[in-house]
Amino acid sequence: MTDTGSIALFTILAFSLALILIMKKDTIPPQMRRMLALVAVVLVSCAFFLIVFSLIGTG
To answer: What transmembrane ranges does the database entry give (predicted)?
Structure first.
């Protein structure tokens, strides 16, 4: 059984972080931008996996 509220919140936050990084890419220093981009990619990948897992697990 999955906690859909936690998965939804994590997904929203992961995609929000990625969107903020894309919108503010000019104001973030290059070293920090690279690290934040890697973190965002990992979080969005995990969110995508959780979405697919929750859809397969409930069906």
So the answer is: 6-23, 35-56
User: For residue 14, what pLDDT band results from cuts at 50, 70 and 90?
Assistant: very high
- Give the domain range for residue 51: 4-58
- What is the tally of structural domains in the chain? 1
Closest alpha carbon to 36 in 26, 28, 45: 28
Question: CB within 8 A of 17, min separation 6: which ones?
Answer: 36, 39, 40, 43
